Amino acid sequence: LQNDHKALMKQVEEALHQLHAREKEKHAKDEAEVLAEAMSQTQSLPQAFAKVNAVTPGSPANISGLQVDDEIVEFGSVNVNNFQNLQNIATVVQHSEGRPLSVTVLRSGKKVHVGLTPKRWAGKGLLGCNIIPLQR
């Protein structure tokens, strides 16, 4: 009986070692896949549809942190899929006067989120910046 018990325990131990080895391999493979996916996401930056080519000092755009050469990826509800012309942005700005807008821009290869609140100020317009469409 003692010998049977020892043999059985040895089989259980070997099976546990195999199970843990397989689990470790699977975990390493999963980690590699997650890393590869993260790398592919950073390379596939969202497509910009417009660019900021002027920001007036002291304007709402300047205060929110918008900078010249920021490429606009999302402007409120406007994105690369539904952008036709600058009138789309003007409409969003007029409907959002006094309310914060979520603006996503590409700045030196990185995605940056800016909270922009269109409002009346000393200068002209509600933003105080100039936006031009990107030709792609």
UniProtKB/TrEMBL annotation:
<comment type="subunit">
    <text>Interacts with PSMC3. Part of a transient complex (modulator) containing PSMD9, PSMC6 and PSMC3 formed during the assembly of the 26S proteasome.</text>
</comment>
<dbReference type="GO" id="GO:0005634">
    <property type="term" value="C:nucleus"/>
</dbReference>
<feature type="domain" description="PDZ">
    <location>
        <begin position="32"/>
        <end position="109"/>
    </location>
</feature>
<dbReference type="InterPro" id="IPR041489">
    <property type="entry name" value="PDZ_6"/>
</dbReference>
<comment type="similarity">
    <text>Belongs to the proteasome subunit p27 family.</text>
</comment>
<dbReference type="GO" id="GO:0070682">
    <property type="term" value="P:proteasome regulatory particle assembly"/>
</dbReference>
<dbReference type="InterPro" id="IPR035269">
    <property type="entry name" value="PSMD9"/>
</dbReference>
<keyword id="KW-0143">Chaperone</keyword>
<dbReference type="InterPro" id="IPR036034">
    <property type="entry name" value="PDZ_sf"/>
</dbReference>
<dbReference type="GO" id="GO:0005737">
    <property type="term" value="C:cytoplasm"/>
</dbReference>
<comment type="function">
    <text>Acts as a chaperone during the assembly of the 26S proteasome, specifically of the base subcomplex of the PA700/19S regulatory complex (RC). During the base subcomplex assembly is part of an intermediate PSMD9:PSMC6:PSMC3 module, also known as modulator trimer complex; PSMD9 is released during the further base assembly process.</text>
</comment>
<protein>
    <recommendedName>
        <fullName>26S proteasome non-ATPase regulatory subunit 9</fullName>
    </recommendedName>
</protein>
<dbReference type="Pfam" id="PF17820">
    <property type="entry name" value="PDZ_6"/>
</dbReference>
<dbReference type="InterPro" id="IPR001478">
    <property type="entry name" value="PDZ"/>
</dbReference>
